[in-house]
Fold these 4 entries.
Entry 1:
Amino acid sequence: MAISFINNIFVENVMLVALFVNVICVGAALRPADTCLSETDYEELCGNVVKYIYAIGLSHVLVHESVASIALSELRALLGFSPLPAWQVYNRTKPSETELKNAPTLEAYYELREPRNERRCLNSTHLFEKNVDAGIKYLDEHFPAIRRIFRQIFEEKLLREGVLDKKLIDHMINVYFEALNRVDKATSDMLWYKLKCDDLEPYFE
């Protein structure tokens, strides 16, 4: 029993170290030392609907939601579920224990548990769905490491855990939040780093 417990702790620590190393690699991939995001880059990131001075301010909210959408897309794909649906009106009501218990399929259970927020919904006061679509397109084209790192983290966890059930879905949602926090920080650091380039720095003095 004691040996089994020690082995479990060892495996868990190895997985945490692997996750940490992966996130460091993402940060390195997102921050090439000799490049900066141009005015055109920020406009493209926002779908070319506003000029760069407004796009810069919008980018921090937009990138966070775009990264979250990429992560959820990868999680759904690896769980074998349908792609992310179109945005819906945000519902603050959490599913009841009865609803969760009676979910007819694992995908239906996941749909009830999937993380949502007020910025990725039809009644969002921050963004349109097309804004996030543009953000995802830009990140996939210019920073494909973001999607790859989520896929790798989720794959490692799924391979380790085995059979898919409600408990594993709950666990993978926790993994999603852990990975999102780390990758989102690396992405935000990258954005701030590139904002300090000579051509845009005067706008922040």
Note: Residues 2-204 form one domain.
Entry 2:
Amino acid sequence: MGTPRCAPLWLWWISLIFLLLRHTLSGFALVEGADSVLTWRYKRELANETGAKTAADMPDEPTLSMRPKTPEELKIPQCEDSTADCAYGGKCVAGPNGYKSCLCPASCPVSIPVSCRAEKHDDYCLSMSDDYREKFLLPEPTCYMGICVCPPMFDPWKMEGSVKLLPFKCDRRELRVQGVALPSDSVYQGTDAMLFCCINMDPRTFVNEDGVDFIQNSSIIREPTSTPYHEIFTDGFEPPRCWSLDIKNAQFSDSGSYLCHVKTVGRHEIPANFTIEFVVKDTAPTNLIGDSAFAVLCEA
């Protein structure tokens, strides 16, 4: 008799619990499936809280450090005149942020067409590589006087073996010179060597044939054996940019400091020097075995 009286009460509790569970599940579904104001605020507050902690621990955000560098950040001079400011065949071009910088044919990678004389499309000279554009915010290659010109390079060029030359630049004010000794800056007496003074741009109209001297020990001026103008300048190929001094049958008098001294012409007189320390060592000892001779190549 007692059970029938209690049945309505249990049914009421079961119905109430069922309704509560249904309401809770509906709420979860709403939060999970919809971008409601509450969930957005929660996400924003959580992000701000996390961001505040990471900002204190890491002042530089990864997104900022990974963005392309501007010409100002790269310390590229702003140009005004293509002829006066840019290297040979260069053009002064405004970039995405309005900053003007020089483009030139010497800095174009092999993926860029050489001639654009027969084409009338502005984008015929294509684009720099994805890797380049991710690193640098500079103007895209463009056609100038029938030749494609490109923004400056930042990776060194290989000359011979492990020797790396300065990357090509397009603004005359970025002129630099580098000295290299081959096969080494330390050779044995009686052997041959070559000293090189190489600049980082096409020398034409800026550094004349006699524009580089090898000054030994601050007093003896030695004229180059060869210059870039002894070679052929061809569109689409890396322009010659090295002056060389041949040292035949090296003697102790050839030892010393060799200053690569560059003289420029035009509006910008840019001082550019580099010192090569060159050493001539005593002849390697020679041992005789029978009728043959061999040199024991060891450090003196």
Note: The first helix runs from residue 2 to 33.
Entry 3:
Amino acid sequence: MGRARPRSEENAAASEPPELPAPPENALRFQIAVQRSRLAVILLMAGVAAIARWTGLVDFDWAGGIAALVLGVASVFVFIYLHRLAARRRWRAPLHVGWMVLDVLIVCWTVYLIDDRSPIWLVWFLTTTTAAAFVAGQRTATAVLWLSCVAYLATLVLMGHIRGFDRELAFACGRLALLFGGTYFMVRGISDLRESRRQIAALNQEKSGRLAELSRLTQELDQRGRQLERANERIQEANRAKSQFLANMSHELRTPLNSVIGFSEILAEKLDGKIEPRFSRFLNNILGSGRHLLGLINDILDLSKIEAGRMELVFEPVSLGDVVHGVTSVMHGVAQRKRIEIEVQVEPRLPAVVADPPRLKQILYNLLANAVKFSDDGSSVQVVARSDEAPPADGGPAGVVLEVVDRGPGIRQEDQKLIFEEFRQVDGGTSRNMGGTGLGLALVKRFTEMHGGRIECISEIGRGSRFLVHLPLDASSAPGRRPAGEPISFGFEVRTAEAALEERPVVLVAEDDDEFFHALSGDLEAAGYRVERARDGNEALDRARALQPASITLDLVLPGLDGWQVLKDLKADARTARIPVIIVSLVANHELGFALGAADYFVKPLDRADFLARLRELVPPAVAGRRPLVLVIDDDRQIHELLDVELADAGYEMIGASDGASGVDLAATLTPAVIVLDLVMDGGVDGFETARQLKRHPATADVPILVFTAKELRADERERLSHDTARALSKAPEDRRRLLEEIRRLVSDSASARGSA
């Protein structure tokens, strides 16, 4: 450890501010300028001394004077060399002390040579002290001043003028006291001036340094700005590439999968009961795997769209009761395979919510699918729709809660947040006992938050789990809303789906088997009929009298009144006697059925194609007359084959075009009832341009266009299509039935328009 500095040194250091180190080049120039000033002063005083000697004012030895002159001049050049050498080798030697002491000695030598006590030497005295003040500051100048006084007294002693404490000493000390006093105050003033100049120089140097730093920072900021701009351009390019990749993936993956699923469904329906059971099982495996893969692709693409901020929700009033019943009916078959009972509780008079219907159904579907998957065989799953008991934080009206309760193994407390992360499952391992990818609950959380709601999990190990989705009554102000605020309407002034449904012939299905009813009702609706249900014999009679349906399908094994008695009562009642009744039952007794007045008799398992053909003979669907022509413009031949089968079964004739140009030509020649148009096609003309050309051609301007595509549509693309098309549907399997419904609706609208004209 170093020694502590004495307090006197600290005070001295504090009294004089530290010198700011000058740049080496400037310091060298200053020292050389000082030496040149010394040279000028030495030569000037030598000249004055020579003139005084010449005129007889003073008398001194020429040899001594010349020697003093040579010493002074030589010291100037010696110190200039030393300063340059010190600057070159970066020495920090106090060279100024050497020439100051030398100047004092030269002054004293001159006094000794002149042998004069007159004040002429005081000029030299003042010069040396002033130079010290300018060069080294007040402390050095004071030291030089004391040195000069002592040297002067010593010189007087050597000259013999002072021989002790005599009168001459008293006069010399008096002169020195006066000189010291005046010189000290002059030195102090010079030092203050020097200090001010130093502070100004320091401020200027600091200002220059700050300006340089500011300039550097400005340049660095400009450079960072350019780098950020280039990075933003790369990010935008990456986003564009990602969006294009997602669009291509959506089209290239979904299109063949939709064909696989569609053909599998047709084969499964057409070959039901006609092939060996194991081949039927293989076909169902293909269908199930295709649906599973399509669901996985949809989940991944949905998650990517949410992360990219491209997921848009379309809000409209939704009945939670309808959502719950619709989803549970879809999950009924899956639950039955595990003998799981789905218990539904919907609060009476539950208000409608403003939400995005498909996403709301997906929220409930994912939760219910998880509950069925993790529940034990033979257990139950509960679905509850009720008002939210906890009022929202903003003080608005209370929302609603969707609650799904399972009887599964439960979830540990520390895992209850992980399950909502993408690709995470609670075990985190490689076992695939339960299957799944870990995307279902992640999408539930994202969709719930986009509706302005929240989801919570309440679970204990061994006691099952409860998932609660809290939703506001109006989610249209949530972050996921469409910027325009309302869904985009397409093209024509069309009726609602409810109005179109009301115009279809009504078929009353008397059936207590839920699974069979859902399968049969789906076929009937796709074929153009509106379906009503009766679960027992008494209800069948009451609803037949009230609804006056176009036809009745009757199961013979019903709770309450059996089917035979129902058939007798229907035919005995004048209000229902003329309604054709088709028996669809496990009981095979055709003779008795026809004897009691049945229009036809089918034994389960049902041949749906034959059944629908017979029903069309008895009760034509909403579209009558010759088969309407549907033009399908799509470059995928498999879509042509798939739609050809489905449209033919629904009573339509189909013709196909593989590109936009040929599609426009065929439409102008044949004038179809409806045009089904894909947006992504080879051949140079895409679906957008094809739609525009069709609407501008006089022969096809009034033909409704249905967009049927696997492309993910942006809001601007939907807006562009809204001027030329009636509706846009995806190629997902669940939308194919909607496609048939839309075709039927548009054909019916066109027929009504022609009739009114």
Note: Residues 22-217 form one domain.
Entry 4:
Amino acid sequence: MDEITLLVVQRAVAGERAAMEQVMRALERPFFNLALRMLLLPAEAEDATQECLLRVATRLAQFEGGSRFSTWAWKVAVNRILELKRKPFLTLEQFSADLADGLELEARERTEDLVSLGELKMGCGRALLQCLEVDDRIAFIVGEIMELEGPEAAEILGIPPATFRKRLSRARERLREALSANCGVVNAAAPCRCHRRLARATVLGRVAPGVASTDAPLDVVALRQKLSRIGEAVRVAAYYRADPTSKPRRDLVLAALQPFTSTRSN
């Protein structure tokens, strides 16, 4: 997230639309990727992002500069998303069974499927996150994917650092076990490969052939090679951090700016 200065915040609070838009633009994609990892469905993530942006905008005067703006903004967004109370929608056992359903063992890995394979890997990883309890899921996203330091992550989540570390450790271990048992990107001995799953995922509407949700596609082959060269203890983090940031399908900032009618320029 691009850091926003106190001066820009003060200008936005004073009613300067350009400053408010600068704040919203800096937050839109980071908030959307947080929501997408927590909620899975893009439409729900977009709605949640818009609500987070509105909440930041209406509470902006409460930011006094005592901490980094990003820390304050993340806390606002996390609190709103946690209010949605999305519970696990699958057990890890059900998730594994879903992966095995329709797996085409004879399918070939084709270069023309690069975009679709990357989209499938990213969607699969986000779906796996939904198997975690909400508290563990948000701890993993904030601490491992967003790479926020323990004290800052604990502050954002409103919990003691020791509690954050416990939740993060529990999430890491559950994801490590699940990925090692199922995912060929992480473990060469695992049965599932993105290209073996692609046809079934396309039929189910989980992947739109050739349609990218990111500015640059994720190269699954390169990621698999990279993970094979690093230790097992850090593969889960590398697996998730490799994902490019996803972009919402509509402009969420324009909707969030509608209540603010000032047109003063810089």
Note: The longest helix spans residues 17-39.
